[in-house]
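Quick question, first post here. What does this chain look like in 3D?
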Amino acid sequence: MTLQLAVDDFLKQKTLAVVGASRKPLKFGNMVYKELKKRGYRVFPVNPQTATLGDVPCYPNLKSLPEPVDGVVVVVPPTQTELVVREAAEAGIRRIWLQQGAESENAIHFCRDNGMSVVYGECILMFTEPIGFWHKPHRWLWKLLGKLPK
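> Answer (accepted):
Ran it through. Tokens below.
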């Protein structure tokens, strides 16, 4: 599967978990969670150190989610990413988006070796429609430079 096919397939899923969702508004995990919700996704926040995200329950891990999800956006340090993708595999989740900064070579290899679709090196907010104000010019520039997935 090409990277663009993996991106398109991931974005078609409507029920997602964001591992690394934060209660701090300026943290990227919080922004991803909020933006995906705004764009019509059903999103479950996952963070073992936070009981709630606003008035929404925050789950300590993927196993504790109240229903199955179609994909996981990972927004944690690379040292934690491999554990997250292993947990996703155990939960039967086959689509993973490793947000920029969360990538781990071991996690990428684990996903590929276990038949999971993995997107990495890309910001999910550059691809979810409608593209926000800050990401629109960034995406245009990447397209101009030939850096978008093919």
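The domain at 3-145 is CATH 3.40.50.720 (Rossmann fold).
The chain has one domain: 3-145.
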